[in-house]
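[audit] Reproducing an earlier prediction to check determinism. Same input, same settings, fresh worker. If the C-alpha coordinates differ from the archived copy the diff job will pick it up downstream; this log only records the rerun itself.
[audit] input (223 residues):
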Amino acid sequence: MNAHQQTPTAPNAARARTSRLPLAPTGGGSPGGGPPTVTRILGITGSLRHDSHNRKLLDAAAKTLRPGTEMVLFKQIKEIPPFDEDDEPVPAPAVAWLRAQIAEADAVLIATPEYNGSLPGQLKNALDWASRPYETNVLQGKPVAVIGASPSPGGTAHANADTCRILARIGAHVSEQTLLVPRAFAQLKADGTPASYALRQQLAQVTSSLAAAAGAARQARAA
Protein backbone atom coordinates (compact mmCIF):
# COMPACT_ATOMS: atom_id res chain seq x y z
CA MET A 1 0.00 0.00 0.00
CA ASN A 2 1.54 3.33 -0.97
CA ALA A 3 1.41 6.57 0.94
CA HIS A 4 -1.55 7.94 -1.03
CA GLN A 5 -3.63 4.91 -0.12
CA GLN A 6 -2.83 4.96 3.57
CA THR A 7 -5.53 6.27 5.88
CA PRO A 8 -3.99 5.46 9.23
CA THR A 9 -5.87 6.09 12.44
CA ALA A 10 -3.60 8.29 14.47
CA PRO A 11 -3.23 7.58 18.18
CA ASN A 12 -4.68 10.07 20.62
CA ALA A 13 -1.19 11.31 21.43
CA ALA A 14 -0.62 12.09 17.77
CA ARG A 15 -3.84 14.04 17.44
CA ALA A 16 -2.98 16.00 20.59
CA ARG A 17 0.24 17.11 18.95
CA THR A 18 -1.40 18.38 15.77
CA SER A 19 -2.80 21.87 16.32
CA ARG A 20 -5.37 23.58 14.14
CA LEU A 21 -4.93 27.33 14.10
CA PRO A 22 -8.03 29.51 13.69
CA LEU A 23 -9.65 29.50 10.28
CA ALA A 24 -9.87 32.80 8.51
CA PRO A 25 -13.55 33.53 7.78
CA THR A 26 -14.69 32.64 4.30
CA GLY A 27 -16.30 35.05 1.98
CA GLY A 28 -19.04 32.76 0.73
CA GLY A 29 -19.65 29.46 -0.97
CA SER A 30 -17.83 27.76 -3.78
CA PRO A 31 -18.52 28.82 -7.38
CA GLY A 32 -20.89 25.86 -7.80
CA GLY A 33 -23.02 26.96 -4.88
CA GLY A 34 -21.72 24.32 -2.49
CA PRO A 35 -19.92 24.80 0.81
CA PRO A 36 -16.89 27.09 0.84
CA THR A 37 -13.62 25.54 -0.29
CA VAL A 38 -11.09 25.72 2.51
CA THR A 39 -7.39 25.73 1.64
CA ARG A 40 -5.44 23.80 4.26
CA ILE A 41 -1.76 24.56 4.83
CA LEU A 42 0.25 22.13 6.93
CA GLY A 43 2.90 23.89 9.01
CA ILE A 44 6.04 21.97 9.93
CA THR A 45 8.91 23.33 11.98
CA GLY A 46 12.35 21.75 11.99
CA SER A 47 12.96 22.81 15.58
CA LEU A 48 12.03 20.52 18.46
CA ARG A 49 11.98 23.26 21.10
CA HIS A 50 8.42 24.19 22.03
CA ASP A 51 9.10 27.91 22.28
CA SER A 52 11.39 28.06 19.25
CA HIS A 53 11.71 31.04 16.95
CA ASN A 54 10.46 28.95 14.04
CA ARG A 55 7.36 27.82 15.89
CA LYS A 56 6.64 31.50 16.53
CA LEU A 57 7.31 32.22 12.85
CA LEU A 58 4.62 29.70 11.86
CA ASP A 59 2.23 31.30 14.36
CA ALA A 60 3.01 34.67 12.80
CA ALA A 61 2.41 33.28 9.31
CA ALA A 62 -0.96 31.91 10.42
CA LYS A 63 -2.01 35.41 11.43
CA THR A 64 -1.60 36.55 7.82
CA LEU A 65 -3.85 33.93 6.19
CA ARG A 66 -6.48 35.18 3.79
CA PRO A 67 -10.17 34.26 4.16
CA GLY A 68 -10.88 30.60 3.45
CA THR A 69 -7.42 29.41 4.47
CA GLU A 70 -6.42 27.52 7.60
CA MET A 71 -3.12 26.26 8.99
CA VAL A 72 -2.64 22.99 10.84
CA LEU A 73 0.61 22.50 12.73
CA PHE A 74 2.33 19.11 12.72
CA LYS A 75 3.90 18.81 16.18
CA GLN A 76 4.99 15.17 16.24
CA ILE A 77 8.31 15.47 14.41
CA LYS A 78 10.26 14.50 17.55
CA GLU A 79 8.53 11.11 17.58
CA ILE A 80 9.52 10.17 14.02
CA PRO A 81 12.19 7.43 14.23
CA PRO A 82 15.37 7.48 12.13
CA PHE A 83 14.70 6.41 8.56
CA ASP A 84 15.26 2.67 8.11
CA GLU A 85 14.28 0.74 4.99
CA ASP A 86 13.64 -2.32 7.17
CA ASP A 87 10.79 -0.39 8.82
CA GLU A 88 9.15 0.72 5.57
CA PRO A 89 6.62 -2.14 5.33
CA VAL A 90 5.12 -1.12 8.70
CA PRO A 91 6.13 2.47 9.47
CA ALA A 92 5.83 3.94 12.94
CA PRO A 93 2.54 5.71 13.81
CA ALA A 94 4.25 9.10 13.70
CA VAL A 95 5.42 8.41 10.15
CA ALA A 96 1.97 7.31 9.04
CA TRP A 97 0.46 10.40 10.65
CA LEU A 98 2.98 12.69 8.92
CA ARG A 99 2.17 11.18 5.53
CA ALA A 100 -1.56 11.41 6.17
CA GLN A 101 -1.35 15.07 7.20
CA ILE A 102 0.71 15.98 4.14
CA ALA A 103 -1.69 14.08 1.87
CA GLU A 104 -4.71 15.88 3.34
CA ALA A 105 -3.11 19.33 3.10
CA ASP A 106 -3.35 21.50 0.01
CA ALA A 107 0.11 22.94 0.68
CA VAL A 108 2.97 22.76 3.18
CA LEU A 109 4.83 25.58 4.91
CA ILE A 110 8.16 24.62 6.48
CA ALA A 111 9.94 26.84 8.99
CA THR A 112 13.51 25.70 9.53
CA PRO A 113 16.31 26.81 11.81
CA GLU A 114 19.90 26.48 10.65
CA TYR A 115 22.24 24.07 12.42
CA ASN A 116 25.89 23.92 11.36
CA GLY A 117 25.15 25.55 8.03
CA SER A 118 22.22 23.36 6.97
CA LEU A 119 18.77 22.09 7.93
CA PRO A 120 18.30 20.13 11.19
CA GLY A 121 18.62 16.35 11.08
CA GLN A 122 15.10 15.74 12.36
CA LEU A 123 13.62 17.76 9.48
CA LYS A 124 15.73 15.94 6.89
CA ASN A 125 14.66 12.65 8.48
CA ALA A 126 10.97 13.60 8.26
CA LEU A 127 11.39 14.51 4.59
CA ASP A 128 13.15 11.19 3.94
CA TRP A 129 10.17 9.31 5.37
CA ALA A 130 7.67 11.48 3.47
CA SER A 131 9.53 10.81 0.21
CA ARG A 132 8.87 7.07 0.26
CA PRO A 133 7.80 5.32 -1.84
CA TYR A 134 9.32 7.81 -4.27
CA GLU A 135 7.01 7.23 -7.26
CA THR A 136 3.85 7.96 -5.28
CA ASN A 137 5.12 9.97 -2.31
CA VAL A 138 2.79 12.48 -0.68
CA LEU A 139 5.00 15.45 -1.57
CA GLN A 140 4.90 14.81 -5.33
CA GLY A 141 3.51 17.97 -6.90
CA LYS A 142 2.58 19.43 -3.51
CA PRO A 143 3.04 23.21 -3.22
CA VAL A 144 5.65 23.87 -0.51
CA ALA A 145 7.24 27.06 0.77
CA VAL A 146 10.26 27.30 3.06
CA ILE A 147 10.91 30.07 5.58
CA GLY A 148 13.30 30.28 8.50
CA ALA A 149 14.21 32.26 11.60
CA SER A 150 17.49 32.46 13.46
CA PRO A 151 18.93 34.54 16.30
CA SER A 152 22.08 35.07 14.23
CA PRO A 153 22.53 38.05 11.89
CA GLY A 154 23.01 35.69 8.93
CA GLY A 155 19.57 34.10 9.13
CA THR A 156 18.88 30.66 7.64
CA ALA A 157 20.01 31.08 4.04
CA HIS A 158 21.90 27.77 3.87
CA ALA A 159 19.16 25.79 5.61
CA ASN A 160 16.46 27.26 3.36
CA ALA A 161 18.47 26.51 0.22
CA ASP A 162 19.21 22.92 1.27
CA THR A 163 15.59 22.29 2.25
CA CYS A 164 14.35 23.62 -1.09
CA ARG A 165 16.86 21.48 -2.97
CA ILE A 166 15.76 18.34 -1.11
CA LEU A 167 12.08 19.10 -1.68
CA ALA A 168 12.67 19.63 -5.39
CA ARG A 169 14.47 16.29 -5.60
CA ILE A 170 11.52 14.62 -3.85
CA GLY A 171 9.16 16.10 -6.45
CA ALA A 172 7.44 18.88 -4.52
CA HIS A 173 6.42 22.12 -6.23
CA VAL A 174 8.74 24.47 -4.35
CA SER A 175 7.66 28.10 -4.14
CA GLU A 176 10.07 30.82 -5.14
CA GLN A 177 8.64 32.89 -2.29
CA THR A 178 10.85 32.40 0.75
CA LEU A 179 11.73 34.39 3.85
CA LEU A 180 14.85 34.66 6.01
CA VAL A 181 14.38 36.18 9.45
CA PRO A 182 17.69 37.08 11.15
CA ARG A 183 17.84 38.30 14.76
CA ALA A 184 14.52 36.58 15.36
CA PHE A 185 14.46 37.57 19.04
CA ALA A 186 13.93 41.16 17.92
CA GLN A 187 11.56 40.46 15.01
CA LEU A 188 9.05 38.14 16.68
CA LYS A 189 7.09 38.86 19.84
CA ALA A 190 6.54 36.17 22.48
CA ASP A 191 3.08 35.33 21.13
CA GLY A 192 4.35 34.96 17.56
CA THR A 193 3.19 38.39 16.43
CA PRO A 194 5.54 40.06 13.96
CA ALA A 195 7.31 42.99 15.58
CA SER A 196 7.13 45.05 12.40
CA TYR A 197 4.67 45.77 9.63
CA ALA A 198 7.34 44.87 7.06
CA LEU A 199 7.72 41.33 8.42
CA ARG A 200 3.96 40.85 8.50
CA GLN A 201 3.74 41.91 4.86
CA GLN A 202 6.56 39.55 3.88
CA LEU A 203 4.83 36.66 5.62
CA ALA A 204 1.55 37.60 3.94
CA GLN A 205 3.25 37.41 0.55
CA VAL A 206 4.53 33.90 1.33
CA THR A 207 1.20 32.57 2.58
CA SER A 208 -0.88 34.18 -0.18
CA SER A 209 1.47 32.85 -2.86
CA LEU A 210 1.33 29.38 -1.31
CA ALA A 211 -2.46 29.45 -1.10
CA ALA A 212 -2.67 30.57 -4.73
CA ALA A 213 -0.42 27.68 -5.79
CA ALA A 214 -2.62 25.29 -3.84
CA GLY A 215 -5.71 26.65 -5.56
CA ALA A 216 -4.12 26.32 -8.98
CA ALA A 217 -3.13 22.71 -8.22
CA ARG A 218 -6.68 21.95 -7.11
CA GLN A 219 -8.12 23.37 -10.32
CA ALA A 220 -5.63 21.39 -12.40
CA ARG A 221 -6.66 18.16 -10.70
CA ALA A 222 -10.33 18.95 -11.31
CA ALA A 223 -9.84 19.78 -14.99
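[audit] rerun output stored. Observation attached for the diff report: The radius of gyration is 17 Å.
[audit] end
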